[in-house]
Amino acid sequence: MSEGKYPINLWVNDDRYDKLKNAGLADMCKEMLAGLKVIQVYANDAEKDQILKLYPMAKFDSATTKSIELLPREVKDKIFDKVIVQKSIDTAVGAFLADH
Amino acid sequence: MAELGHGGKKIVERIMSASEAKKKAKGLTQIPVRGQIAKEIINIAYGFFTPLQGFMGKKDLDAVVKRMKLADGKTIWSIPILFDMSEAEIEKYGVKAGQTVLLTFEGNPMATFKVDEIYAYDKAKICKSVYGTDEDKHPGCARTYQYKDKFVGGKIMLVNKPKINPPYEPYFIPPLEMRKKFKQKGWQRVVAHQTRNVPHTGHEWLMKGAWLQAYGELPIEKPIVGVLVNAIIGDKRKGDYIDEAIILTQDELRKSGYFGDHNHLTSLTFWDMRYAGPKEAIFHAMLRTNLGLSHHMYGRDHAGVGTYYDAYDAHHLFLKVQKDLKIKPTFSMNWLYCPHCGEVTNEGLCSHKPEWQKFSGTLIRSIVQDGVKPPRLIFRPEVFDLVMESAEKYGFGSPFVTDEYLEKRTPVFSIPPMKV
Ligand SMILES: [Zn+2]
To answer: pLDDT tens-digit profile of B68-104?
Structure first.
């Protein structure tokens, strides 16, 4: 069985967009919902399980969005900071979890 | 002139004057009730549940379960309204048929209850009929199984009016008052929008679409059709939008001019959702008939939960019993954002299906949770600002229900102290 890839949507406002631009990551943004920018970071199976255990209010929405949703804002802020530091959407979640 | 409600029955408020209440309540055995029952007492007393005058007896319950009707064999009724007690409580309070007791909420007298009968009924049979399943993981079944083992039927009279707490008080508009408001506004038709949500533009367009459908062949020289947002306020689950954000943002669509006084009004009904899908859709039709509405909007999977009901089950059941209902349905297709059209459009209109960006409640909540303001085509900036303001003012920092909110929130209504 291949390793799962579970997106987390980090919604991008002007402030986040400037940070992404400075980090050279602006082209990683996708557009969803009338031009609203989003950057998707990915958790693997183990990371998904760990993050849902740490934050029980969050859930993996397998039915509609196919993403991990309802994480607290502070958590997503921290993951976003990791994206900027790591300059990667694949290792940000791992780096965030390493701090916990 | 009498105001006629559901089943063609006159709407009568079952509320005693203060002096009469004092006399009638004196010396009665006091029985405390929980929130669900208190809400239903309010609904009975103010006529939201016309023609019910109290909690159902066995004949009515049996008719609802077997034929989706009251015992008169004519009036449609889809969800039982029951007062439950355990044997031990019946013994403790000495409850007997023919006796009148005083129901209290949070320690204060609320209503007299004239007991007609005490009976038992098969709960699984209620579930199968109302919810189409007897699985206890269905939230409506779970609520039914939580009823204690005996039911008490009898009439209710309110002795003490509820105090609706801020910011909800302008939105509690009972049937007789609502009908006056519609007359003042000159609305000949009013369409109901059922909600438990903070509105995104997909919801806004559901209302606009329903308004256009309800307008139909009427003359357009002056505004004579309105939308009534009727928010269901009841038990909350963690992760729901907080009630304050729901009611205030719905009204904000009018205040900010997306609608106006001439076509939009926001109100609430106290009710713990049963998630009965089609049966709840019929229940909503009865409720809003009593509120004086001519039309009711139904989208996909109305009041459903999980995968218990098909998207259009509610529509099918409505059409089956339509001749016995006064209210007319407007059925709505989904609204979505199409980047090709560059606008919010309808799945029945636009052909750019591969490009569609559908409104997902989960995604919108995810955006709100991040505190990121979405484009105005998706979410109105005034609504977004008000959600954030409500989070600070009422939600202990969160626009969604948390443990802290459940514990510390201001109740929507309270029953004031009353000496008896
Ligand atoms: Zn299109």
So the answer is: 999 999 999 999 999 999 999 999 999 999 999 999 9
Pick the CATH number of B6-161 from 2.60.40.10, 3.10.400.10, 3.30.240.20, 3.20.20.10: 3.10.400.10
Q: Is the N-terminal amide bond of B175 cis, ω within 30° of 0? A: no
> Model's pTM, two decimal places?
0.94
Residue type, A43: A
Q: Does CATH place domain B169-412 in 3.40.50.300?
A: no
Q: To the nearest whole angstrom, how far is the Cα of B149 from the nearest Cα of chain A? A: 34
Q: Tokens in use for A33?
A: 């919902």
Task: Please tell me the distance between residue B348's alpha carbon and the centre of ligand 1 in angstroms.
Answer: 11
Q: Which of A67, A70, A76 lies nearest to residue B365, judging by beta carbons?
A: A70
Chain A contact set for B381 (CB, 8 A): none
Chain B interface, best mutation among A8, A31, A32, A36, by max B CB count within 10 A = A36
Q: Are B119 and B80 in contact, with CB atoms under 8 Å apart?
A: no
Contact B363 A57 (CB under 8 A): no
B154 close to B117: Cβ distance less than 8 angstroms? yes
